[in-house]
Design brief:
Elements lengths: L29 H14 L9 H12 L10 H13 L5 H27 L12 E5 L5 H9 L4 E2 L3 H5 L9 H18 L17 H5 L7 H5 L3 H8 L4 H17 L5 E5 L7 H7 L4 E6 L2 H17 L7 H24 L6 E5 H6 L1 H12 L5 H17 L4 E3 L8 H7 L1 H6 L3 H7 L4 E3 L2
Parallel strand pairs: 1-3, 1-4, 2-3, 4-5
Antiparallel strand pairs: 6-7
Helix pairs in contact: 2-4, 3-10, 11-12, 13-14
Length: 441
């Protein structure tokens, strides 16, 4: 799924006190009224039609006038996702509509991309050379860094509008597609009005890799939006190489449209859980790993996820959500560390969150020097303009508190002990237990 009106994930700081209620309009709360109407229908036993994989596939085929989804099996993944959403996610009316719209959008994108590959054989001949993947714990500066590096004219990142509408692979109706993406962003801001201060949303904002994998229905995007524990458990047991192969096909599609730029800049913290699959598709990949104390990272991502899921369900449990975050990200780090040790030193650069926070241009310059890249004056000026615009959009100080999610600093430190010891967070994190965390975007 490309970044729809209904989902996004980022790592900028947000206020620790931003609870689901903070997402509501101060005046007339139309989304709440809409969901309330849906709840009344449920109580009256006027239930919505179940969302079934075969029905959505048929609808997508009819809507597009196409029937070839290309390589890769996705029926089981889609069916498991829909079953989990029906049985576990406790979706409100907006959530049910969002799920159906997003799945149909992903299916239609897949149909149209396969048609384009047949019409334009050179799409499949596009070479993706030495892409850079930004990884690290969530809310550790990965998205800020993604946008900064993507500002270089020599670089290429998947943009929201083209991920949402990748077909046709040329400039036909480009303005219209960008306008539609802007409308989607505005609609999401209407549903969750405070989210614009958490995450940069817009038609030309770089997107996470999970959006490129959504048409396989093997993507962490769904777990970010909905409480789907059975799908989540199944997903973690799957071989994700097919998802990364589709990811590469998506990049080829976008590169065919605008091939002049030479280096792909990509980003998703979740890559840490799937390094063997990633490297099987991108054997020459480069990496930047951002680092932040897990105390801040887990508190921040738990707050963000509470806000995000609350757009689609009125039964979000922040404690359960935080436990999921601790378990998932500690496991991801545990899987990633031995995999990164197999990489040559010149293929992975480490950057601390404080470097990005205090002097983002210097952090970028260090990455360029590490990989032997040239930072042009034009690229640096674009990056400085981006930093200035972001400073206006976000307030300076944000605080996070694990206690609002029912967990102590000691519990988080225990889960991430090997990571903290290896990257120098152990002593600073233990000292931090006595004071609230603070972040400056």
């Amino acid at each position: 799924m490309s970044l729809s009106p209904f989902a996004c994930e980022d790592d900028e700081t947000i206020t620790s006190h931003a609870q689901p209620n903070a997402c509501r309009h101060s005046r007339l709360d139309l989304p709440a009224l809409f969901n309330g109407f849906g709840a009344l229908l449920e109580k009256a036993r006027i239930r919505s039609t179940p969302i079934i994989a075969a029905d959505l596939i048929g609808t997508a085929k009819r809507r597009c006038g196409l029937d070839d989804f290309g390589e890769g099996e996705f029926f089981e993944a889609l069916s498991r996702l829909l079953d989990s959403c029906r049985d576990e996610a406790r979706l409100n009316l907006i959530g049910k509509i969002a799920l159906k719209v997003d799945v149909l959008q992903a299916l239609c994108a897949r149909l149209k991309m396969e048609r384009d590959r047949q019409l334009h054989p050179n799409i499949s001949r596009q070479e993706i050379r030495k892409p850079l993947f930004i990884v690290g714990l969530p809310r550790s500066g990965t998205s800020v860094l993604h946008r900064l590096l993507a500002a270089d004219p020599e670089h290429r990142a998947p943009l929201m509008w083209e991920v949402r509408s990748p077909s046709p692979p040329n400039r036909v109706r480009e303005k219209r597609r960008i306008q539609q993406a802007a409308q989607s962003s505005n609609f999401f801001n209407w549903i969750v009005p405070t989210f614009r201060y958490v995450h940069a949303i817009g038609p030309e904002v770089p997107q996470e890799c999970v959006s490129l994998m959504t048409p396989t229905f093997l993507s962490d995007q769904f777990d970010a939006m909905y409480y789907v524990p059975s799908y989540r458990a199944w997903f973690f047991q799957q071989d994700l190489r097919p998802a990364y192969e589709f990811h590469r096909r998506f990049l080829q599609h976008l590169q065919f449209r605008r091939a002049a730029r030479r280096r792909w800049i990509l980003k998703a913290p979740t890559h840490m859980s799937a390094m063997p699959a990633l490297l099987s598709v991108y054997p020459d990949a480069l990496f930047v790993q951002t680092h932040r104390t897990p105390l801040d990272s887990i508190a921040s991502v738990s707050s963000l996820m509470t806000i995000l899921r609350s757009a689609f369900s009125d039964a979000v449990d922040p404690v359960t959500l935080c436990r999921e975050a601790i378990d998932y990200w500690s496991d991801a780090i545990e899987k990633f560390l031995p995999e990164r040790d197999r990489l040559a030193d010149n293929r992975i650069c480490d950057i601390k969150y404080d470097e990005i926070r205090c002097d983002p241009i210097s952090a970028v310059r260090r990455i360029y020097e590490y990989f032997g890249w040239s930072l042009s004056s034009e690229a640096e000026q674009r990056m400085r303009s981006l930093v200035a615009s972001q400073a206006k959009r976000l307030s300076a100080n944000h605080r996070y508190d694990l206690s609002q999610f029912g967990f102590s600093a000691a519990e988080v430190l225990h889960a991430f002990a090997p990571y903290c010891q290896r990257f120098g967070f152990w002593h600073s994190a233990r000292a931090q237990q006595k004071q609230p965390a603070r972040s400056i975007a």
